[in-house]
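[recover] target loaded
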């Protein structure tokens, strides 16, 4: 039995594509879904039609629903993927069919890469983007994006096909472009799929104008087509701060505020990790989460210049270098991949900058399913620090967020490390 308030709310659902968020009585997000028409899809949950037992159980828990309106069904796909990763709702896990979860795979190490989808990402040096929670929809999205960023769907064999005539391939086989320029265009596609859409549009406009000023009108025309193609796909969010939730009601951020005695929930959180093999190609990652959701446009990567085989010294270097960039907004909280040694190395740097910091000690387990052991520096009257350890179950809001940030910083660091290692092996 749904409440009168929810009935009234359902009447305001728009006839537009978007992402919806079912919540329980505690205000927790229990399911995230996308819809081509929000009005039709969300109301289906509450109609007296036959449903499978799991869906019936989900509906029984729904107390409230919110939504975000977007411009296209494809935008809904990308936003749904990000929000599921952000909130990890229990019913998305319970209802998920693994056959529907897909990743986009692009091997940029190949002389002529092609774009495909897979259910099983491998540690093979290729770029994997996802997960996406509806295979048919990501395939549809790729078909649309292929008209803006032409790509090969199969290994390149040099033969002309109908796709060549339709402009769906970059045209290496007909002398239209080169493998180098094709890879450049694929990087635009990867940026788009990874959520870097706003900055990508700005960058394309700059490159278009630069090409025109140099008299390279063919390149300018190509960039113009991509620019206006992406402008037509641009997401429109009707909620502030790219979030549908009032920040004060976000349980994970509220728990961090209480745990650390902050004046407000941390809006901007930065996560850091170090990656290397026996001191070779040592790198560091900086990932950024705004209001609990990843902001890939703000990610940064660093080549470590000092000690190559000392994670503690490397962490000091990356934090020192990050603080030299005031043009990047300072975070409300920093989360380190590490424990007391890493925290001890940077605590005085961050104290001077008035930035709180915590560590996650996990003994190599970077998965979001692991329990989270939070290491918290506590300042003593004499200016020294002691370090308190607090264990959180992996099903808590705080643990889910910290694990997500840690997992992302680890992924970003190891991806960069592998890129450098591949270049070294190839002698570039």
């Amino acid at each position: 039995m749904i409440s009168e308030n929810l009935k009234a709310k359902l009447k305001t659902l728009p006839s537009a594509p978007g992402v919806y968020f079912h919540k329980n009585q505690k205000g927790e997000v229990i399911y995230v879904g996308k819809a081509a028409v929000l009005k039709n899809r969300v109301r289906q949950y509450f109609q007296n039609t036959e449903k499978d037992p799991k869906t019936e159980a989900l509906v029984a828990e729904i107390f409230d629903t919110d939504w975000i309106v977007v411009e296209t069904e494809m935008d809904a796909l990308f936003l749904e993927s990000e929000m599921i990763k952000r909130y990890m709702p229990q019913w998305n896990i319970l209802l998920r069919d693994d056959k529907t979860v897909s990743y986009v795979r692009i091997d940029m190490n190949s002389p002529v890469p092609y774009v495909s989808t897979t259910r099983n990402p491998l540690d093979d040096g290729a770029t994997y983007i996802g997960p996406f929670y509806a295979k048919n929809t990501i395939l549809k999205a790729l078909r649309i994006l292929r008209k803006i960023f032409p790509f090969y769907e199969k290994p390149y064999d040099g033969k002309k096909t109908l796709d060549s005539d339709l402009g769906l391939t970059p045209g290496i086989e007909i002398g239209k472009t080169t493998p180098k320029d094709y890879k450049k265009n694929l990087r635009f596609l990867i940026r788009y799929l990874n959520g870097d859409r706003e900055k990508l549009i700005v960058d394309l406009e700059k490159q278009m104008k630069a090409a025109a000023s140099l008299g390279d009108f063919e390149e300018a025309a190509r960039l113009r087509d991509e620019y206006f193609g992406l402008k037509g796909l641009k997401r429109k969010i009707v909620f502030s701060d790219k979030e549908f939730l009032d920040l004060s009601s976000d349980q994970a951020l509220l728990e961090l505020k209480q745990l650390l005695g902050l004046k407000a929930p941390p809006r901007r959180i930065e996560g850091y990790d170090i990656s290397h093999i026996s001191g070779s190609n040592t790198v560091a990652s900086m990932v950024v989460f705004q209001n609990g959701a990843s902001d890939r446009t703000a990610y940064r990567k660093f080549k470590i210049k000092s000690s190559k085989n000392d994670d503690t010294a490397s962490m000091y270097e990356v934090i020192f270098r990050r603080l030299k960039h005031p043009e990047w907004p300072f975070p409300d909280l920093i989360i380190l991949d590490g424990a007391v040694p890493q925290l001890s190395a940077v605590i005085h740097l961050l104290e001077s900058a008035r930035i709180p910091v915590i560590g996650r000690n996990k003994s190599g387990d970077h998965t979001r399913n692991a329990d989270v052991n939070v290491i918290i520096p506590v300042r003593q009257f004499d200016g020294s620090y002691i370090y308190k350890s607090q264990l959180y179950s992996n099903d808590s809001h705080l643990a889910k967020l910290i694990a997500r940030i840690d997992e992302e910083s680890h992924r970003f660091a190891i991806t960069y490390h592998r890129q450098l290692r591949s270049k070294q092996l190839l002698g570039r």
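[recover] notes: Residues 234-249 have pLDDT under 50 and may be disordered.
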